[in-house]
Design brief:
By secondary structure, the protein is α+β, with helices and mostly antiparallel strands. The protein has 4 helices and 8 strands; from the N terminus they run H-E-E-H-E-E-H-E-E-H-E-E. The chain has one domain: Regulatory factor, effector binding domain (Multidrug-efflux Transporter 1 Regulator Bmrr, Chain A), CATH 3.20.80.10. A hairpin with a 4-residue loop joins strand 7 and strand 8.
């Protein structure tokens, strides 16, 4: 019996350590700044936001395998608020940020993929460490309630939020334009 309690205790310590490593105690601070100027390669997705990862991965694979473009920054732009819109009707655009060195190929890529610019604009930006998939889930639960509170305090419009998954720099950015 004692061994069972020890095993449960070890499992709980390991789970807690994993959550801490994933960003459980990461501070979420919002900053108002100019952000953008990026070219986005994406697919439109309608459905549960928790199921967008395979679509994003497919865009990444197509760019890597067909175009020899290593787009290490993924993104999702989420247009609807879960809970207010049924899961099967949630709208998003998911894909990859085109690395700047390939911007001259954007017009040619637009013949095969959906391409658009995320223009430089005034945004609210927050960051969280990106260490694993749990970081994404923790980020959703930590960031969006604070963002909602900030919107109410400042009177900003509730625009779509871009989540930017920067693998190389190990961070998730939450970007919401505040103009218009």
């Amino acid at each position: 019996m004692k061994m069972i309690f020890v095993m449960i205790g070890i499992a709980l310590v390991v789970l807690f350590g994993y959550l801490v490593y994933s960003g459980l105690f990461a501070k979420i601070r919002f900053e108002e700044k100019d952000f953008g100027g990026e070219t986005l390669i994406y697919e439109e997705y309608i459905g549960d936001y928790s199921k967008v990862a395979p679509v994003m991965d497919e865009v990444y694979r197509q760019l890597r395998d067909d175009e020899q473009i290593d787009a290490e920054v993924g993104f999702g732009i989420y247009f609807d608020k879960p809970g207010e819109v049924p899961k099967e009707q949630l709208r998003s655009e998911v894909g990859c940020v085109l690395p700047a060195e390939y911007n001259e190929q954007a017009d040619a890529l637009a013949e095969k993929y959906k391409v658009k610019e995320f223009p430089v604009q005034r945004c609210i930006v927050a960051e969280m460490p990106y260490r694993n998939k749990m970081s994404i889930l923790l980020g959703v639960f930590k960031t969006y309630p604070k963002l909602e509170k900030l919107l109410q305090e400042k009177g900003y419009p509730a625009n779509p939020v871009m989540e930017r998954y920067d693998v190389a720099n190990r961070r998730i950015q939450y970007i919401m334009p505040i103009e218009g």
